[in-house]
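Appendix B. Chain record.
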Amino acid sequence: MNRCSNPVDRNAFPRLCAGLLIAFLQATTWAQTVGRPIPPHALRGTLEVTQPPNVLLNGQPDRLSPGARIRSDNNLLTLSGTLVGKTLAVRYVREPHGQIHDVWILTAAEAQQPSPKTP
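Structure tokens predicted for this chain:
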């Protein structure tokens, strides 16, 4: 006597796994092609963190704002203390009080693209 009234589709689980794998691979491919959201009004410069929050921007003393966000070349937030002594090609946006608030460390490909220069 068969207690299961519905026969089990033995191919359902492998097909489900294959479908999920394909969906995952497509999602990761899409994520790699999406560019970083650097605003067009962000200026380009070279940044060297001397003693956080003090920095040199294009060789001139400047300051990071409280809560400044520094995004590394792989778009992860980076603490300014980990960048002490390094000279980096960046794009940046200032806050209304004039301090540097948003910073994007450029990849080699982004550094070669034309963009606005510091005034």
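Further analysis of this model is presented in Appendix C.
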